[in-house]
């Protein structure tokens, strides 16, 4: 199940639509893999006016990421998936795309309790 909570007052963003779509498809597909048939994926957006940033969170109630792996998940070719199920490039490529948009991507996770990936991007209020 996917639940959404979108901020209705988001300012404009200047983005490469195809690349940003790739990032969020990767995050959502990873979350879907983590939750299986019974978990919940939550997608939220928020604008933080003081920093003029947009925060997009993809959270899941899946199995989470072990602490020993958290520092490596954005490394090229690192994967926690079984052989043949993942290349280990999705999060690495996503990290590069977000950095090229002057943003950042962070993760919080607890084994057995799920993960939250937060993408932070600069808002463009001059458009």
Describe the structure.
The protein has about 130 residues and is an alpha+beta fold. The protein has helices spanning about 15-35, 65-70, 90-100, and strands at about 1-5, 40-50, 55-60, 105-110, 115-120. α1 links the parallel β1 and β2.
Secondary structure tally: strands? 5
Succession of helices and strands: EHEEHHEE
Which structural class fits the helix and strand makeup?
A: alpha+beta
Major sheet: arrangement of strands: 1-2-3-5-4
Percentage of residues assigned to helices: 25-40%
Strand content: 25-35%
pLDDT average, as an integer?
Answer: 88
Number of helices: 3
Descriptive tags:
single chain, alpha+beta, globular
SSE map:
Elements lengths: L1 E4 L11 H19 L5 E8 L4 E8 L6 H4 L19 H11 L3 E7 L3 E9 L5
Parallel strand pairs: 1-2
Antiparallel strand pairs: 2-3, 3-5, 4-5
Helix pairs in contact: 1-3
């Amino acid at each position: 199940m996917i639940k959404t909570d979108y901020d209705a007052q988001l300012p404009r963003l200047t983005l490469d639509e195809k690349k940003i779509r790739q990032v969020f498809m990767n995050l959502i597909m990873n979350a879907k893999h983590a939750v299986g048939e019974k978990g919940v994926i939550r997608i939220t957006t928020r604008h933080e006016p003081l920093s003029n940033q947009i925060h997009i969170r993809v959270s899941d109630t899946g199995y989470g990421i072990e602490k020993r792996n958290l520092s490596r998940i954005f490394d090229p070719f690192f994967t926690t998936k079984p052989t043949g199920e993942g290349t280990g490039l999705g999060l690495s490529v996503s990290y590069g795309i977000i950095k090229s948009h002057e943003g950042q991507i962070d993760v919080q996770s607890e084994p057995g309790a799920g993960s939250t990936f937060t993408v932070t991007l600069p808002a463009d209020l001059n458009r």
